[in-house]
Amino acid sequence: MAELNPIRAWKRLLALPNESRTKTLLVAFLTSVVCAAVVSGATVVLRPIQAANRAAEVQVRLESLLSAIPGMQEMLTAADDAQLAAVVVNLETGRAAKEISPGEIESALQDSANWTPLTPEQDVADIGNRPDYAQVYVLRDADAVQLLILPIAGGGYNGPIEAMIALRGDMETIAGLTVTRQSETPGLGARIEEPAWQADFAGTRYKDESGDMRFAVAKGPATTEYEVDGITGATRTSNAITRMVRFWLGPMGYGPLIDAVERGEF
User: Fold this and answer.
1) 126, 43, 91: which is closest to 254 by C-alpha?
2) CA pair distance 207, 212, nearest whole angstrom
3) How many helices (H) and strands (E) does the chain have?
4) Mind listing the pLDDT tens digit for each residue in 142-163?
5) Distance between CA atoms of 66 and 137, rounded to whole angstroms?
6) Domain spans of the chain?
7) Alpha helical stretches, state H, 69-184
8) Per-residue pLDDT tens digits for 96-113
9) Residue 115: beta bridge partners?
């Protein structure tokens, strides 16, 4: 009959010579089990902390973006009823998602069913899959949208780039942009985090009167109202920003939401 006493079994295992294959395999197995348990436990414990830190970082970036937008402080001071609210949007319909609250968006996006695969032709931003929901920030003055702040993401030269872009109430003019995450080359592509470069976005138009997408990061100094200055030696990063902005402000991104705001239906 097999030994059922775990203490005796453990002592017999330890009594085996170190050269024993059985002892080596069992110790390796037990070590891997313990390590897996520790890692899993740490992941569970740290996930809320990481989420909170990420939310705090986004809040800091959001406040920085607002403070950098020309005329924003005057607008907030003049309009007592202006409120910046977080809203979860269904990107397919361009409407507020009643089934998901801002507090539920992170868990909702853990479900692969809430993501849409993109074809190579659609995937201008190089993201592979687009979330079906996104949390945006809306500044209203009375009944009109004065500012729309949208999280955007795309594939950069060295890895993902994440940012927030703000549109003025006309839904044709960029009010500002702030990069929240990037891993581009220091001194080159990483300059997209420099406030001086980001400030160039304020007042830039991204589409013309006919609604055609015109935004671009120029290869040098901007020459039209639809461009921002390029970054010397960082052509791939500049192109990534161009594609990212074009995707998210286009029909596969926030296009339906922007259309709804322009019609006064959001």
Assistant:
1) 91
2) 5
3) 7, 11
4) 778 989 999 999 999 999 999 9
5) 11
6) 1-60, 69-262
7) 72-78, 105-108
8) 998 899 989 999 999 999
9) 131
